[in-house]
Design a protein that fits this description.
Number of domains: 2
Distance between the termini: 69 Å
Structural class: alpha/beta
Family: Belongs to the bacterial solute-binding protein SsuA/TauA family.
Mean pLDDT: 90
CATH topology of the largest domain: D-Maltodextrin-Binding Protein, domain 2
CATH class of the largest domain: Alpha Beta
CATH superfamily of the largest domain: Periplasmic binding protein-like II
Radius of gyration: 23 Å
Keywords: Signal
Subcellular location: Periplasm
Largest sheet: 6 strands, mixed
Strand order of the largest sheet: 2-1-3-10-4-11
Low-confidence stretches: 1-20
Main location: periplasm
Shape: elongated
Number of strands: 11
Order of helices and strands: HEHEHEHEEEHEHEHEEHHEH
Strand content: 15-25%
Number of helices: 10
Helix content: 40-55%
Protein name: Phosphonate transport system substrate-binding protein
Amino acid sequence: MIRTIATALAITLASALPAFAEPVKFAVTDMEGLEALQQEFGAFQTALEEATGLDIELFPVSSRTTAVEAMKSGQVDLVLTGPAEYVIMKELDEPKIVVAWQRPDYFAQIAVLANGPIRSIEDLKGKKVAFGSIGSTSQHLGPAQALADFNLKYATDYEPVIISRNIAAEALIRGDIAAIGLNFGYLNSVREAFPDVAFSVVARGRDLPNDILVARKDISDDVLVKVRDAFAKNGNELMKAILTGEDNQKFKGGFFLTDVKDSDYDYVRSMYRTIGIETLTDFVN
């Protein structure tokens, strides 16, 4: 009798307590290894937990493809990624948009030597133009689109070559290439690396679409609303936490934007078409 009462009481207490909530796992596509992820996003992890009341767990991924597979299998719930990666993810897994992470002065440029032979876009016809990491929004796709916006067709009116930016700067100084496609921040770093060389810009693209936080398509509505509301109501605190990371300084001065639509990334889709990619079902390597 006593055992029966004790058992019934235990069942009653168990049913009255909330079920143990699984942690919400957060990944970043351009950052490998848990140590780097913790260093850059550890403070943000704590701030997001406080703002949402959720248990947030940092989840390292080795590549963009791994991030998609992790979302599909339910291993990861939230993924921060770039605009070029997002449009591929959208085709592969239909993730839900949470919030955009604005990067001020995020635009592509075509840089040349200020005292060199290239004075206009027309002068680049038949010449070599270097781009950075292949498939990068601001180092490859964006600069190629900036040239296309000025009617220079990719791989037809000029020869595209893929070279890292510092090596490309050295090649530009030697005269091996005519121009470099890169973003505003990277051009500043090139100028710092080569202080005795004058560079100028002959083409500038429009501001690029923002980095974006997405959620797996079957995430619970409760978690999605809590996370989205946290960015809307506690954006300043979350941004302050983000900026404790050295690599995250690219977001300094930016905002979290909650009014985001998939169509905002159609400009990125046009960039892929510019370099000859019509089907967005795989990442460019």
